[in-house]
Amino acid sequence: MISVQQALDIIDRFPNRFSSVEVKLQDALNLVLFEDVFSPINMPPFRQSAMDGYAIQYSEAEKFTVIEESKAGDSTNYTLKPTEAVRIFTGALVPDHADTVIMQEHVEREDQFIQIQKMPSKFANIRKTGEQIKTGELALKKGTKLNEAAIGFLACLGVTTVSVYKTPSVAILVTGNELQQPGTDLEIGKIYESNSVMLKAALQKSGIKDIKIIAVKDDYDATKICVKKALQANDILLVSGGISVGDYDFVKEALLENDVEELFYKINQKPGKPLWFGKKENTYVFALPGNPASALTCFYIYTLPLLRKMCGFKNNHLQKVIAKSKSVIKNPSQKTLFLKAYLESEFVEILQGQSSAMLYTYAMSNVLICVDSETAEVNIGDEVTCIKLDV
Ligand SMILES: Nc1nc2c(c(=O)[nH]1)N[C@H]1C(S)=C(S)[C@@H](COP(=O)(O)OP(=O)(O)OC[C@H]3O[C@@H](n4cnc5c(N)ncnc54)[C@H](O)[C@@H]3O)O[C@H]1N2
Ligand code: MOO
């Protein structure tokens, strides 16, 4: 049995290589750039008026003759003399001969003439060509997470596709004779299968879209075949259940039989002791304990960092905060504990119902308190590490 830190260190060695994919910019929200993006154009591409008003050559003159009009989208570059003005609108091309735009509020218009009420400083109200970015300059760095602003920025440069880290494809293999699909009356001895829906939701929250769910009975041959199938076309395989030591727990053998290399099995923790982690070529396998709360805790602590890293993210572990305990915690087990708890300002309270078979408490919690294996007791007011669950 290894420690939590040893398990995390092993997972942290992976992945050995990253994959990229070219996607349409409009499909790239929350994906991470695999390559630097350079601007294909100057932005703005031409000198633009920043105001509705009049373009002039800056001077001491008080009266100008309005000769032409330039509205957004027009392409004519008018020639103007020192006391001539071009009526102009926000976003329109400023004539090369003009160096200043006066806001229309600062002039009095009479027929073809404008009388200056307040002359702005020279060069006012003109956006310079390339003032935001010039052709060939770095627009966004490799590793940037594409939020809506980044997508808008690249779109304004005319970028239509981007190379991003490929989000992993994930197969969830649920094992167990007792599992029944929700939507039918429960038969005696059965429970509703919930781990696949829960894990799928957790994956979707992390931006994973390519998710397949496979269900198999507690049968060695069938499990072996399903593992083989799931390994073929996926970057991550999550198995639920069948990883403990019972006579009908076949997952470990089925994985080994499919040449998945075991990287660790069993962690000195509660819940989630029987977690198994392995790798076959570029596919990573987490055999999660079947107890629902164990499966979810193992997902948060071990699976999530690896899959976020594959997606190109930098900070891949759930955020930790220190809070004062409102509960007494006894830990005679010498295991690391992950306890469902509720954090409010700087205080955190353990919730009733810590069994790894119970999801009710999980649904009420917003953090996991992590008590390390060397800490035998936490008293009220002691500082504890909380792992925040809002991914
Ligand atoms: N003799 C021992 N028995 C057990 C040990 C041990 O060390 N020695 N470890 C216990 C611990 S800790 C855990 S955790 C479980 C893990 O067992 P498995 O991974 O083999 O999981 P199962 O036995 O298949 O299921 C456990 C539990 O979870 C329910 N389950 C399973 N899959 C689902 C699902 N998809 N949706 C909802 N619920 C599910 C299942 O019905 C069981 O109640 O082993 C202990 N035993
Ligand atoms: O580790 Mo098991 O996950 O405690 O129930």
From TrEMBL:
<dbReference type="InterPro" id="IPR008284">
    <property type="entry name" value="MoCF_biosynth_CS"/>
</dbReference>
<dbReference type="InterPro" id="IPR036135">
    <property type="entry name" value="MoeA_linker/N_sf"/>
</dbReference>
<dbReference type="InterPro" id="IPR036688">
    <property type="entry name" value="MoeA_C_domain_IV_sf"/>
</dbReference>
<protein>
    <recommendedName>
        <fullName>Molybdopterin molybdenumtransferase</fullName>
        <ecNumber>2.10.1.1</ecNumber>
    </recommendedName>
</protein>
<comment type="similarity">
    <text>Belongs to the MoeA family.</text>
</comment>
<dbReference type="Pfam" id="PF03453">
    <property type="entry name" value="MoeA_N"/>
</dbReference>
<dbReference type="GO" id="GO:0046872">
    <property type="term" value="F:metal ion binding"/>
</dbReference>
<dbReference type="InterPro" id="IPR036425">
    <property type="entry name" value="MoaB/Mog-like_dom_sf"/>
</dbReference>
<keyword id="KW-0501">Molybdenum cofactor biosynthesis</keyword>
<keyword id="KW-0460">Magnesium</keyword>
<comment type="pathway">
    <text>Cofactor biosynthesis; molybdopterin biosynthesis.</text>
</comment>
<dbReference type="GO" id="GO:0005829">
    <property type="term" value="C:cytosol"/>
</dbReference>
<comment type="function">
    <text>Catalyzes the insertion of molybdate into adenylated molybdopterin with the concomitant release of AMP.</text>
</comment>
<dbReference type="InterPro" id="IPR001453">
    <property type="entry name" value="MoaB/Mog_dom"/>
</dbReference>
<dbReference type="Pfam" id="PF00994">
    <property type="entry name" value="MoCF_biosynth"/>
</dbReference>
<keyword id="KW-0479">Metal-binding</keyword>
<keyword id="KW-0808">Transferase</keyword>
<feature type="domain" description="MoaB/Mog">
    <location>
        <begin position="171"/>
        <end position="309"/>
    </location>
</feature>
<dbReference type="GO" id="GO:0006777">
    <property type="term" value="P:Mo-molybdopterin cofactor biosynthetic process"/>
</dbReference>
<keyword id="KW-0500">Molybdenum</keyword>
<dbReference type="InterPro" id="IPR005110">
    <property type="entry name" value="MoeA_linker/N"/>
</dbReference>
<dbReference type="InterPro" id="IPR038987">
    <property type="entry name" value="MoeA-like"/>
</dbReference>
<dbReference type="GO" id="GO:0061599">
    <property type="term" value="F:molybdopterin molybdotransferase activity"/>
</dbReference>
